[in-house]
């Protein structure tokens, strides 16, 4: 008996319906905002893991007030001390929480930027002016930091609770709380929901111009690193543009980052300070620690911001182009 022509098991109607469904899924992910959201999350995780030891060291420098000298030393010596005291775990302390925070933070930031810039484009995909990039980047920064701020506080506390600060010494064998333990303890003991947003005002004040400058400077630097006759820079050029944009943006907004860290640990005992507000914090820091107190930790921060932002922008562009089905980026 001759087999029926459809006995192969392939049903043309279902095949075309399945292909149409795949096309719709593909079209959804290839939208600029969606692709930027996905690529931003991956870029955030890559960049933070690359520079985790320097990120933690920056926080330890920032929260150390006058009279506390446990980490009053050069960056290499401080990293060596961190390794002696805590080993590899010390280098990665808080990085898990940081990645849990940074993936949605970075995803929302890049996605929001691409959403906001649509309001300023003369045509889809059109170029923005420098001030338009600055404004859209600032709005994207505010959106992303508000969404993920409680995890940022937890990351800060995880970063310092195991450090060898004399005033934070604890009994041998005492188990340190994890991410959820800190969140619950802050909620119960430090003022409820508002405790999870302590320090949000100086954070927003610093993040908005930082993210705005980062996007603006990167787009400008990107054109300088693009070879003549080419539309896009090579991967090395993108790394260079990311490093330049990160360094400029961080240097301009760094005092806000110090204020953010101080307020995030303001209610912890043994830190040596209790600030009543932003103006009081600025006054007390300058009075007791000088203007240099507003830039504590900037050296490890600048050392980490170049590889951090370089890897972030490169990861973002590579992932976005892959999701959108664009040609592979040329590396050399």
Automatic annotation (TrEMBL):
<keyword id="KW-0677">Repeat</keyword>
<keyword id="KW-0479">Metal-binding</keyword>
<dbReference type="GO" id="GO:0005743">
    <property type="term" value="C:mitochondrial inner membrane"/>
</dbReference>
<feature type="repeat" description="Solcar">
    <location>
        <begin position="233"/>
        <end position="322"/>
    </location>
</feature>
<feature type="repeat" description="Solcar">
    <location>
        <begin position="31"/>
        <end position="119"/>
    </location>
</feature>
<keyword id="KW-1133">Transmembrane helix</keyword>
<dbReference type="InterPro" id="IPR018108">
    <property type="entry name" value="MCP_transmembrane"/>
</dbReference>
<comment type="similarity">
    <text>Belongs to the mitochondrial carrier (TC 2.A.29) family.</text>
</comment>
<keyword id="KW-0472">Membrane</keyword>
<keyword id="KW-0496">Mitochondrion</keyword>
<dbReference type="GO" id="GO:0055085">
    <property type="term" value="P:transmembrane transport"/>
</dbReference>
<feature type="repeat" description="Solcar">
    <location>
        <begin position="128"/>
        <end position="224"/>
    </location>
</feature>
<keyword id="KW-0999">Mitochondrion inner membrane</keyword>
<keyword id="KW-0813">Transport</keyword>
<keyword id="KW-0812">Transmembrane</keyword>
<dbReference type="GO" id="GO:0046872">
    <property type="term" value="F:metal ion binding"/>
</dbReference>
<comment type="function">
    <text>Mitochondrial transporter that mediates uptake of thiamine pyrophosphate (ThPP) into mitochondria.</text>
</comment>
<dbReference type="InterPro" id="IPR002067">
    <property type="entry name" value="MCP"/>
</dbReference>
<dbReference type="Pfam" id="PF00153">
    <property type="entry name" value="Mito_carr"/>
</dbReference>
<dbReference type="InterPro" id="IPR023395">
    <property type="entry name" value="MCP_dom_sf"/>
</dbReference>
<keyword id="KW-0106">Calcium</keyword>
<protein>
    <recommendedName>
        <fullName>Mitochondrial thiamine pyrophosphate carrier 1</fullName>
    </recommendedName>
</protein>
